[in-house]
Amino acid sequence: MEELIFAEDIEKYYGNKNNLTKALDRVTFHVNRGEFTGIMGASGSGKTTLLNVLATVDTVTSGHIYYGKDDITVLSEDQKSDFRMENLGFVFQDFNLLDTLTLEENISLAMSLTGKGKKEIDTHTREIMERLGIWELRDKFPYQVSGGQKQRCACARALINRPRIIFADEPTGALDSKSARMLLETFIQMNEEMKATILMVTHDAFSASYCKRILFLKDGQIFHELVRGSQSRKDFLNEILDVLSVTGGDGDVR
Ligand SMILES: Nc1ncnc2c1ncn2[C@@H]1O[C@H](COP(=O)(O)OP(=O)(O)O)[C@@H](O)[C@H]1O
Ligand SMILES: [Mg+2]
């Protein structure tokens, strides 16, 4: 498998000399292309910090993060924003759709910002919307469609620039269990059919069971890793719950 990200010995401290929080403690791991990886851990374990430093939204205190040969910890602010636009996709908890734009416009806007031509943007927007089953809704506004359809629109927007990886921080955190299931099924579709690489942060065992691999964080350190392999999602869920029961996680079961 092709390696996409290598995080090497990363540390993150917040605060100053008198009031220091160590949010990440010598974290090292790889993400390969095509993986659907979960980061699990209790509240305060460092999940969001880890996602933010991988996504260049926050900086590490020490250590390196390589995308291929490129070390993103040395980029300037301008270089980071270009890097994000060209390489990363995000699915936000509240989906962040613009209410004054149609679904199609919400998706194509993300591609217009990269300076691509109209024809390519239109063709590609249609292709992604058809794949996610929302092309018929292209002229609707976000408030005119269901929660599940808004999710698919947010996923299409995350995919539109063919990102190397998609990040999602607790994407199911504000959803009821049916909506959560639908979003997770969409992630599976994106990962399996569209070969998207996804990194999802969650404290919830049910959501994590949809991943192919899970890294467990505690006090800013990776203390365990599970790979789903060929086992069913239900068996994988039980395996996750076993890890949490040993370590005292706060994952809830739905
Ligand atoms: N901006 C910040 N300033 C100070 N401390 C922070 C900040 N963000 C997070 N922390 C602290 O870092 C630790 C990890 O936080 P976070 O990454 O948000 O964990 P999680 O997402 O797993 O809940 C916690 O102790 C949290 O209080
Ligand atoms: Mg968090």
User: Cα distance, first to last residue?
Assistant: 33 Å
| Unreliable parts | none
- Helical stretch tally: 8
> Which CATH-level-2 architecture?
3-Layer(aba) Sandwich
Shape: globular
How much beta, percentage-wise? 25-35%
Sketch the major β-sheet: 6 strands, mixed
Bound molecules: adenosine-5'-diphosphate, magnesium ion
Q: Would you report the number of β strands?
A: 10
Counting helices, strands and paired strands, the structural category is alpha/beta
| Overall number of structural domains | 1
Give the mean pLDDT.
94
**What's the Cα radius of gyration?**
18 Å
- CATH H-tier superfamily: P-loop containing nucleotide triphosphate hydrolases
CATH third-tier fold name: Rossmann fold
Return the string of H and E elements.
EEEHEEHEHHHEHEHEEH
Helical content class: 25-40%
Q: Assign the CATH class.
A: Alpha Beta
Strands of the biggest beta sheet: in what spatial order?
A: 6-7-8-3-9-10
What is the chains' assembly state?
Answer: single chain
